[in-house]
C-alpha cells in the first residue's frame, strides 16, 4: 500500500446489503472504489454493534484493494492481533478510546498494519500532535460515531490544522461522516484525501444494479477533484 495524495473514495459497507457482503464488496470495487471501509462498533464506545474479527476475516477474500478497518471500540489493544489476522490493511483506533494511544499505534504497526488514529468532532487536532510519527492516517469524524446516514458536521478548520501539522509527512487525512458531492469539495479543499461514504455510495444501487454505485462514486470523486484540479 504505497502513499499518494490523490482523492480516494472508501465506501463504508455499513450501508451495504448485510445478507450479501461478498458481492457488494466486489460490486463497489468494480465500480471504482479505491478502498473498502469497515466500521467496527462495540455497543460500548459507540451505541451500535456491527462487525467482529470473524466477519472482517470473511470480508477479506473479496477485498482486492485496501481493507480500511475503523475500530469504534474500547479497549482496542486486546483486539489488535485479531484484526491483523483478519487481514486489515489499515487499522484505526480512536484517540478517545483509551489512555495510551501512543502504545496502541505502536502495536498496530508492530502487527504489520498501517496505523490510523480517529478524532471525534469534539476532539481538537492538537490531540494527535505528538502521534504524527506513529501515524499513517488521521480520520476526522464529521458525525458523532455510531450510525450511518447522519448529517455532516463542518470540521474544515480542524482538517486545515491537521494538514498544516502534518507538513510533508506521508499521512492521509480521512473524512468519515456525511460525505456526498456537496460536502466532498469542502473537505478536499481543506486537505483531506480519503473520503468515506456510505449511504451516498450505496443509494439507488444493488448487486443487480451496480452501475448506480459507480455513478455515485464518480460524482463524489468529481466534486472533490473539482477543487483540486
UniProtKB/TrEMBL annotation:
Catalysed reactions listed for this entry: D-ribulose 5-phosphate = D-xylulose 5-phosphate
Binding site for a divalent metal cation: 37, 39, 70, 176
UniProt entry keywords in alphabetical sequence: Carbohydrate metabolism, Cobalt, Isomerase, Manganese, Metal-binding, Zinc
Cofactor: how bound: Binds 1 divalent metal cation per subunit.
GO cellular component terms listed in the entry, alphabetical order: cytoplasm
Obligatory cofactor(s): Co(2+); Zn(2+); Fe(2+); Mn(2+)
Residues given in the record as substrate binding sites: 12, 70, 146-149, 176-178, 198-199
GO BP, sorted A to Z: pentose catabolic process; pentose-phosphate shunt
Signal peptide segment: none
Enzyme active site: 39, 176
GO molecular function: D-ribulose-phosphate 3-epimerase activity; metal ion binding
Involved pathway(s): Carbohydrate degradation
UniProt key word Nucleotide-binding: no
EC number: 5.1.3.1
Family in the record: Belongs to the ribulose-phosphate 3-epimerase family.
Biological function: Catalyzes the reversible epimerization of D-ribulose 5-phosphate to D-xylulose 5-phosphate.
Name of the protein described by the UniProt record: Ribulose-phosphate 3-epimerase
Amino acid at each position: 500500500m504505497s502513499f499518494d495524495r490523490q482523492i480516494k473514495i472508501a465506501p463504508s459497507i455499513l450501508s451495504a446489503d448485510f445478507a450479501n457482503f461478498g458481492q457488494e464488496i466486489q460490486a463497489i470495487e468494480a465500480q471504482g472504489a479505491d478502498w473498502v471501509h469497515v466500521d467496527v462498533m462495540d455497543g460500548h464506545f459507540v451505541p451500535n454493534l456491527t462487525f467482529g474479527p470473524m466477519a472482517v476475516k470473511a470480508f477479506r477474500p473479496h477485498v482486492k484493494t485496501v481493507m480500511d478497518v475503523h475500530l469504534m471500540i474500547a479497549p482496542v489493544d486486546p483486539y489488535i492481533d485479531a484484526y491483523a489476522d483478519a487481514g486489515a490493511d489499515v487499522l484505526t483506533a480512536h484517540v478517545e478510546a483509551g489512555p495510551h494511544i501512543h502504545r496502541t499505534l505502536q502495536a498496530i504497526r508492530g502487527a504489520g498494519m498501517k496505523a490510523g488514529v480517529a478524532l471525534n468532532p469534539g476532539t481538537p487536532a492538537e490531540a494527535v500532535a505528538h502521534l504524527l510519527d506513529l501515524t499513517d492516517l488521521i480520520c476526522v469524524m464529521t458525525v458523532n460515531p455510531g450510525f450511518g446516514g447522519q448529517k455532516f458536521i463542518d470540521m474544515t478548520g480542524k482538517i486545515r490544522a491537521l494538514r498544516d501539522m502534518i507538513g510533508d509527512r506521508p499521512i492521509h487525512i480521512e473524512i468519515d461522516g456525511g460525505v456526498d458531492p456537496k460536502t466532498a469539495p469542502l473537505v478536499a479543499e481543506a486537505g483531506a484525501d480519503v473520503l468515506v461514504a456510505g449511504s451516498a455510495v450505496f443509494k439507488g444501487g444493488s448487486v443487480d444494479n451496480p452501475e448506480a454505485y459507480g455513478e455515485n462514486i464518480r460524482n463524489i470523486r468529481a466534486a472533490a477533484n473539482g477543487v483540486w484540479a
